[in-house]
UniProtKB/TrEMBL annotation:
SUPFAM superfamilies: Metallo-hydrolase/oxidoreductase (SSF56281). It comes from Paracoccus aminovorans. NCBIfam families: Xnuc_lig_assoc. InterPro entries: MBL (IPR050698), RibonucZ/Hydroxyglut_hydro (IPR036866), Xnuc_lig_assoc (IPR026360). One of its GO terms (molecular function) is RNA endonuclease activity. This is Putative mRNA 3-end processing factor.
Length: 330
């Protein structure tokens, strides 16, 4: 068996020497393979970028046409130098993918960010047999056990029925979470117009163009917003924009809302535990299902996952890639 590594951690991120590319690099590189469009994975200025068509579209929408020197749509399996790469659905946001890198009979799967709960806005996670699985650990502690998202939308709708005179403002990140929350509400039968902050319009329009049913959306720009429910990026809650709403119910949709102290710190009246990441049971369940020969851990609570792997007798290593934000756009 060859001893030279297929992937190795560098200052710029995971690097494939035989393919001459990085995966989700932390700084501009000659060639980058990108798992999804969140800014802690997809950055400006690479010489060449390969990603799914939807991720490339999202990068253009967020960073402009000149975000990279050249782009290539990932379709099926592609030979790059001495390795074969394949992109497989991750279930995180629209266009998100796991990247499998294969050399001979050894395959490494870099999952990026992923979830196992059904998400009506994107393709579900596809388990890919592998020798090494690179997992995120954003919520890699036993305390994180997420409820069925339907219970959280039911909680929101019950609050709206109880307080019909109060606008409900839901904080949700612009890419993925905002559209996820809106789609869940539509699945729950809520068909009234939903107001969105202007910062969400471009990506909501793109999701709709890709066939995601978000129902009737209106802009939350007028002094009198014609909707009881308003979705906005978290940054808007610290701006004068929020002052136009009289006695609002402040809500926030995030896996972090499972921690009451986080909700209190943000002044959240109605926490909604809705995540686009794996919780502890889903993370450990995925590792048990895949049964890789080795696990690499990054993005978050690496120590908790390392300890679980030790008890499960699965060799594991922390990547400790500096520069990835702790669920910057969960």
């Amino acid at each position: 068996m060859r001893s030279d590594p297929i992937l190795l951690p560098t200052e710029a991120g995971l690097y494939c020497p035989e393919g001459g590319f990085h995966i989700d690099p932390l700084k501009p590189v000659a060639r980058a393979l990108i798992t999804h469009g969140h800014s802690d994975h997809a950055r400006f200025g690479h010489g060449a970028v390969m990603a799914t068509a939807q991720t490339l579209d999202i990068m253009r929408l967020r960073m402009g046409e000149g975000f990279a020197g050249s782009t290539e749509i990932a379709e099926g399996e592609t030979r790059i130098g001495g390795v074969t790469v394949g992109f497989h659905p991750a279930g995180h946001v629209l266009g998100s993918a796991q990247i499998a890198v294969t050399r001979g009979d050894c395959r490494i799967v870099v999952s990026g960010d992923y979830t196992r709960q059904p998400n009506p806005t994107c393709a579900p996670f596809q388990p890919v047999p592998c020798d090494v699985f690179v997992t995120e650990a954003t919520f890699g502690l036993p305390v994180f056990r997420f409820p069925d998202p339907a219970t959280q939308t039911a909680k929101l709708l019950a609050s709206m029925a109880e307080f019909p005179e109060r606008p409900h403002l839901v904080g949700a990140y612009a890419l993925g979470k905002a559209q996820h929350v809106i789609a869940l509400l539509r699945q729950a039968g809520y068909d009234a117009p939903i107001a969105i902050h202007g910062a969400l319009k471009t990506l909501c329009d793109y999701y709709i163009a890709q066939g995601v049913d978000l129902g009737a959306l209106v802009r939350a720009t007028a002094e009198e917003v014609p909707a009881q429910l308003v979705v906005a990026p978290p940054s808007a809650f610290a701006s004068p924009w929020v002052q136009r709403f009289r006695d609002p119910v402040i809500c926030f949709a995030s896996g972090w809302m499972a921690v009451r102290a986080r909700a209190r710190q943000r002044g959240v009246e109605l926490p909604l535990v809705i995540s686009d990441h794996v919780d502890w049971p889903a993370l450990t369940g995925t590792l048990a299902e895949l049964a890789p020969a080795e696990v690499w851990v990054t993005h978050g609570a690496e120590e908790g996952v390392m300890r679980w792997c030790e008890l499960a007798q699965i060799p594991a290593r922390p990547l400790r890639l500096v520069g990835y934000e702790d669920e910057a756009e969960e």
